[in-house]
Amino acid sequence: MNRLTSAERVRAAGPCLTCVAVSVLLLAAIVASFWYLAIDLRALFSAESSRTMGKFIGEFFPPDTSSAFLSKTAWAALQTLAVSALGTLLAVIAGGLLALPASGRFGGVARQGARFLLNWLRSVPELVWAALMVLAAGLGPFAGALALALHTTGVLGRLFAEALENAPHDAERAVEQAGAGTVAAFAYGSLPLVLPQCVAYSLYRWEMNIRMAAVLGFVGAGGLGQMLYYHLSIFQQAQAATVLLAMFVLVFCVDAFSSYFRRGLAPAYA
Amino acid sequence: MAAPVALSLTDVGLVHPNGQRALAGVSLEVAAGERLAIIGPSGAGKTTLLRVAGTALRPSEGRVQVLQANPWQLGARALRRLRARVGVVHQAPPIPPQLRVVTAILAGRLGSWSLWRAIGSLIYPSDIAGAHEALARLDLADRLFDRCDRLSGGQLQRVGIARVLYQRPELMLADEPVSALDPTLADAAVGQLIAQSEAVSATLVASLHAVDLALKWFPRIVGMRAGHVVFDAPAADVTREMLVELYAAEGKVLPTQANDPSAVPVVARRGAGDGVLPFSRPGCR
Amino acid sequence: MSAVALAGTPPRRDPHARRRATATLIALVVLWPMLVLADFRPWALFEAGNLKVMGGFVGGFIPPSTSNEFLGLLLKATIETLAMATAGIALSFVIATPLALAMTGALSVSRIGPGPGRWRGELLRHAARGVLTLLRAVPEIVWALLFVRALGLGPAAGVLALAITYGGMLGKVYAEILESTDTRPARALLEAGSSRLAALFYGLVPGAAQELASYTVYRWECAVRASVVMGFVGAGGLGQLMDQSMKMLNGGEAGSILLVFLLLVLLADALSAALRRLLT
Q1: Which of B114, B140, B168 is the last residue of a domain?
Q2: In angstroms, what separates the C-alpha of B108 from chain A's closest C-alpha?
Q3: Which pTM was predicted?
């Protein structure tokens, strides 16, 4: 007989018990968070704080557009660009080197070790790396480049390793069968297969890194970030506004350039 | 004085890891400079046999001797040197699509080049004239600097043949090298392999699906079915009955390059350019 | 074989060589200024002063600081970070939802057929999309820095920063999810004249709920990481604690905090994976 028992009917009619329990827990967590942080939302959006906020925002306008400051900002923007480029370049080299053991070419132990290292490099956020690198290499853009390099090595290394593992091996084996050595077989067999994908993703990562490099300056790694932090700390809002605008313009240009570039580059990875 | 033995398989058997038997009790001896065609229905083990001969697969039973060396007892470096003297033409050349034709052909001599020359050739091809000459023999010289993914299947097969011609090995193993070519081109390509073999006295062992091509060009025919060698005879002694029996599982029609059953002569004549076979339909590639 | 004769003289040069050489030359020319601008000095890593500082700092990692007082601070900071992330996501959900509903074409009555308000509908959708893009344009850490200057140190700045940027991200993705699921039930309801909210709850949400919830949980995981990073500019939590320890070159404390951070990230990852599995 296909009739449900009354207990089954009750259960079928309402939402599942786990769903309800989880939803209740989530709501409780959210309420608890607000309570713990003691953020008085009402005070935050009250008339008085809105006025202070308004005054604060007002000090940003008009932004400082004196030519001396503009050239300083432009220089900082170029520095940010250079930091991101150097960091990504170093990461491509290091990631490529680590990808070889991480793809299993030197055995299982090396693979685990390399993957562990890459994961660890990836997990630490760039800003934390930057703070550490400021200690290791001193204040300035080089620390930022190193930080980006370390974090991006983890990201790119893992991606390169996966590309290498997923590439079909027949081309490499065929060249080996013609008597080539291991390195030559790799260069003629597997490398051409993974190169387009790796180049594309490296360029994409560079784009992300430009955004990141602008921000790393907050801990002393040079570029637009350091300028913004400095001017905000001494309450020079007008100058800070210029730097913020410069960040906007930089990101916008990078977006536009990259979509144009990627369309042109797509068919021709030789 | 007997010619040295280029390839010798004694009682070779091979069982795949999944339990399937590919070869059983195969014995074959090929003298240096000899030309031999292997024919048989699909699944006969032709590819497996050639892979064993090319030291790509290790046999489960029996002994293999390639160019008078046992490949599975050699050290890594000696094995590499041995492999450089053996050229394999694959049915579907495993060439990375982004590679240019010139680089794909030059890869044939990687066995004898130093690592620096090999890497340098990736940036600037180190022997353009040589690659061009090999490609010209297959009538594809105008595509020397194209990317391999711009080529059709048949053109890619010809590049694979050009690579082996450029390699100038002592032993050439060709696994269905012209399966994607129309009859005229296929005939020409097999002719080039034969010519190479004659010019440098290289041994040539080719597996062919088209019986007419095999009978036309090769003085010795080996028939295989279900992993066994069914017959091993001079082309002149191959009768229609033997062929029909060999391909019995595939039906009454014998496979030819042009799919024209009347194209298979009962008795083949040796040598190039006889022009007897009536390739009526033009190729579709 | 006449093919060889017909092929003519072999080419002497690689036709692509010139283009490649030019590209390489350009790259090299750009390389030098880049290295100068970015102050490339790998030897700085081995300078005696830096080495001493770094060595002392890293040496202090072991043993990690485990005094009771510090562990108490650590626990407080961890909870603060988690609370910041949760509150931030909650607020961003509040911001994202109306914008997503305004932006999604799945609830558009005007799209179904001719009628009044077609232009208005399009305009509203574009406006909503513009607002969401603007919200996403500035990285959350910049907002955090600004809010810290405006409101003072503490997690409030981080929560607001998350609310803004993640509101933009959630809104965009919610709208896309709503449009990519099967919109026929909702359309049927709208065609029958139901209100948009009814069409949403009865038509779209049942099909899209899993994906919506899954993405929200994934964003929460990202928010945990972002909360730590924002702490470096004064928004409280583990980040602020670590910034203070590093400024005092206290390797022991920094090491403990780093460890806790890595564990927290793993925990958040596991929790989010479990929740998402629960949903599917």
Answers
A1: B168
A2: 7
A3: 0.83
